[in-house]
Amino acid sequence: MSRTYTIKVRDRATGKTHTLKVPEDRYILHTAEKQGVELPFSCRNGACTACAVRVLSGEIYQPEAIGLSPDLRQQGYALLCVSYPRSDLEVETQDEDEVYELQFGRYFAKGKVKAGLPLDEE
Ligand code: FES
């Protein structure tokens, strides 16, 4: 039996807060969709940051979030499409392109961004 956690997602675009029940072995974004909650996403495999959120409290596990720099992970950002809950969580959606700009706005010009790794479909 896997454990199930309660995830609160505040959607800054709509001002709504969604409450989800997510098993520890399921992606949060995927589970949200199944529960009829629409959240931003695009690639679904941890590469684009469209689904990025700020973690306000709780613990998240995102080993496949290759699109997110270690710095930003440490600052509490997470990619919901490849995130599993490890406790009850409170997260809020980013401002549009916030994570993309934090990550690439600064580095792109300096050529520090490496090409993405090949991604396997699940
Ligand atoms: S949808 Fe692209 S990183 Fe999550």
Topology:
Blueprint: E1 4-11, E2 16-23, H1 28-34, E3 52-57, E4 60-61, H2 70-74, E5 77-79, E6 84-85, E7 89-93, H3 98-107
Parallel strand pairs: 1-7
Antiparallel strand pairs: 1-2, 3-5, 3-7, 4-6
3D architecture notes:
One of its GO terms (biological process) is electron transport chain. Residues 5-97 form the 2Fe-2S ferredoxin-type domain. Its cofactor is [2Fe-2S] cluster. This protein is of the alpha+beta class and 122 residues long. It has a single domain (4-110), classed as Ubiquitin-like (UB roll), CATH 3.10.20. 18% of the residues lie in helices and 28% in strands. It has three helices and seven strands. The strands form two sheets. Strands 2-1-7-3-5 form a five-stranded mixed sheet. The structure holds FE2/S2 (inorganic) cluster (FES). FE2/S2 (inorganic) cluster binds at residues 41-44, 46-51, 67, 79, 81.
